[in-house]
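Private note to self, pasted from the team thread so I don't lose it. Backbone tokens:
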């Protein structure tokens, strides 16, 4: 087993927790993201000697991998995986690996996904995705004209996206679809892939933005809870499930227990997501206040009002917490419906799922709707700007407030949506709720657009990755080596 000294692992663990706080990812993708980041740092700086061993040691130090649990032979296999990708990179300029948009950066994405699944194979994840895919592929009827192979591919992608929010790994899974023998690739296959790499990349990127994507994801979200709970039941005790299938009452008890456990897990995940998002908001908001808001108001406007600053600091995390904690949780009726539908899945009594053809609107209606939606944008943001102006916000303070309001609304919506996937009972209606949704849609769309732009300009990530991380990790390694040296000298006495 791979065994290392962990005297300084606490420092690495704390750093990684801080790093993850400013780069929001799904919990099961955090280790994969760390692998990609560590490889990017090592390769771009030329630290390619014993890369597999250094990577494994750093992952254990940061507690992404357990110590004394990974077989030692995996180090040799890990080096073979890395060598395969270095052959694929060929003469590509390795410094470009920093950019995910470059070809080396794209290859790094595949490398990180393969290494993550190699070190700790996600057997349960793949089994549950394949199970849901087989059933959905059989039951879904699409009215849109689409090739059977493309239809099956898009259904698989939608299942992976909704069941495990697995977007970061989809490029690698599609790559395996085109080259199923890639894990055991020989020189000839590596050469073939290298010759067609740009074409493969274009094909995979086109698969990921297929126009059928949104319809499938919307439909899959309505069914994902059944397969999530079914996976938990089978993974926990497969023998008991086999016996329970002979008795609907016994199986219902298992589903109820698993459902309640799933609800508690979702509630805990909701709280962790809120905590990470609040930390992210506080850190980024505090930084923006220091470098933008305060200097602009103090030096250029010759005025400084502490009230807008305090509102800007306190409002985003408070709003996020209130919205997220007000999320509706499943009730007993919800559990009964889930139990009934899981039994139907197991007994093969699922119904055909119809995905209708998209209706094309007349161009006049589309123009009218676009104008009306633009007016809705103006009303929503106009009211907020009027209120902020009344509170003596400056232009910069307004910009910062609206920026974080949009981002917070998007964070809260995504956090709530993840929890709402457990609920299959009809949502409560009402005029006030409808009006609230109507007025907040522009804010959510603004948040979605800003999050994409802001992610590329996250100065915290830049500082941590390119200013702090490399010297910090070098210091940790030197400290660990020094402590090992001292320990050896002590044993010689």
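Design output:
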């Amino acid at each position: 087993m791979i065994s290392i000294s962990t005297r300084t692992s606490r420092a690495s663990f704390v750093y990684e927790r801080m790093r993850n706080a400013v780069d929001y990812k799904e919990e099961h993708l955090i280790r994969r993201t760390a692998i990609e980041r560590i490889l990017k740092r090592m390769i771009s700086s030329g630290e390619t000697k014993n890369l597999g061993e250094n990577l494994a040691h750093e992952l254990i130090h940061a507690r992404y991998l357990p110590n004394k649990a990974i077989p030692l032979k995996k180090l040799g296999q890990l080096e073979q995986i890395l060598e395969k990708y270095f052959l694929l990179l060929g003469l590509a300029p390795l410094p470009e690996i920093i950019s995910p948009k470059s070809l080396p950066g794209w290859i790094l994405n595949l490398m990180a996904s393969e290494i993550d699944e190699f070190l700790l194979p996600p057997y349960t994840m793949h089994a549950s995705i394949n199970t849901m895919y087989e059933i959905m592929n059989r039951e879904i009827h699409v009215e849109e004209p689409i090739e059977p192979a493309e239809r099956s591919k898009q259904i698989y992608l939608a299942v992976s996206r909704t069941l495990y929010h697995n977007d970061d790994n989809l490029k690698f899974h599609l790559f395996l679809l085109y080259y199923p023998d890639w894990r055991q690739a020989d020189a000839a296959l590596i050469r073939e892939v290298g010759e067609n790499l740009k074409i493969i990349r274009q094909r995979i990127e086109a698969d990921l933005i297929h126009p059928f994507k949104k319809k499938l994801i919307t439909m899959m979200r309505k069914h994902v809870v059944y397969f999530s709970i079914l996976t938990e039941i089978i993974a926990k005790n497969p023998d008991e499930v086999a016996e329970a299938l002979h008795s609907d009452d016994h199986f219902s008890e298992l589903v109820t227990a698993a459902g309640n456990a799933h609800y508690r897990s979702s509630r805990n995940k909701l709280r962790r997501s809120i905590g990470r998002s609040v930390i992210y908001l506080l850190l980024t908001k505090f930084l923006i206040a220091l470098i933008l808001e305060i200097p602009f108001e103090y030096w250029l406007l010759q005025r400084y009002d502490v009230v807008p600053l305090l509102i800007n600091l306190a409002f985003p995390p408070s709003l996020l917490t209130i919205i997220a904690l007000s999320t509706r949780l499943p009730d007993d009726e919800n559990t009964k419906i889930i139990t009934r539908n899981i039994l139907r899945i197991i007994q093969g009594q699922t119904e055909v799922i119809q995905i209708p053809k998209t209706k094309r609107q007349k161009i006049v209606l589309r123009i009218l709707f676009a104008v009306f939606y633009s007016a809705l944008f103006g009303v929503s943001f106009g009211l907020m700007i009027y209120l902020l102006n009344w509170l003596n916000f400056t232009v910069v303070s307004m910009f910062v407030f609206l920026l974080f309001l949009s981002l917070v609304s998007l964070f809260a919506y995504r956090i709530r949506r993840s929890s709402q996937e457990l609920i299959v009972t009809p949502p409560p209606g009402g005029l006030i709720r409808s009006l609230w949704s109507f007025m907040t849609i522009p804010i959510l769309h603004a948040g979605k657009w800003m999050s994409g732009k802001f992610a590329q300009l996250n100065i915290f990530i830049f500082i941590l990755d390119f200013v702090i991380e490399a010297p910090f990790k070098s210091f940790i390694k030197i400290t660990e080596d020094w402590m090992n040296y001292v320990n050896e000298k002590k044993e010689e006495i």
